[in-house]
Amino acid sequence: RPSPEEALQWRDSLEKLLQNPYGLASFRSFLRSEFSEENAEFWMACEDYKKTKSPVKMAEKAKKIYEEFIQTEAPKEVNIDHFTKAVTMKNLVEPSPTSFDMAQKRIFALMEKDSLPRFVQSEFYHELIK
Question: Which numeric CATH code is attached to 4-35+115-129?
């Protein structure tokens, strides 16, 4: 469990929150309660994808991420604009570690602007800083 001081830093840094296993778990629980957990799941899938070395594995993961989060009517479709979706699809012709960067940045910005302020106001967060 993080110290209250550590948890307090998350108010200003979504990055620190996502890097902390406890923070990530709390944030995901909060997002689940708001029906927007796919954003954190997509972000995590992209982080995992970027660490993939094998081109074969990378292609498999890229396809899975695309089908799960990007394609229209995907089971956990994330909210990205058409331009970002088009760029991402073009990047997937030849998957590389940066294929999802633009989409991941958009979702990070969305969580930072939208979800993080609500998380900081929530019971989930207030329990952590006690």
Answer: 1.10.196.10
How many Å apart are CA 85 and CA 12, to the nearest integer?
Answer: 28
CA distances from 33 to 48, 77, 118 (A): 24, 17, 11
Q: What is the pLDDT of residues 23-82, one digit of tens each?
A: 999 999 999 999 999 999 999 999 999 999 999 999 999 999 999 999 999 999 999 999
Cβ 64 vs Cβ 100: under 8 Å = no
> Model-level pTM?
0.94
Within this chain, domains 4-35+115-129 and 37-112 share the same CATH topology = no
State the fold for domain 37-112: Regulator of G-protein Signalling 4; domain 2 (1.10.167)
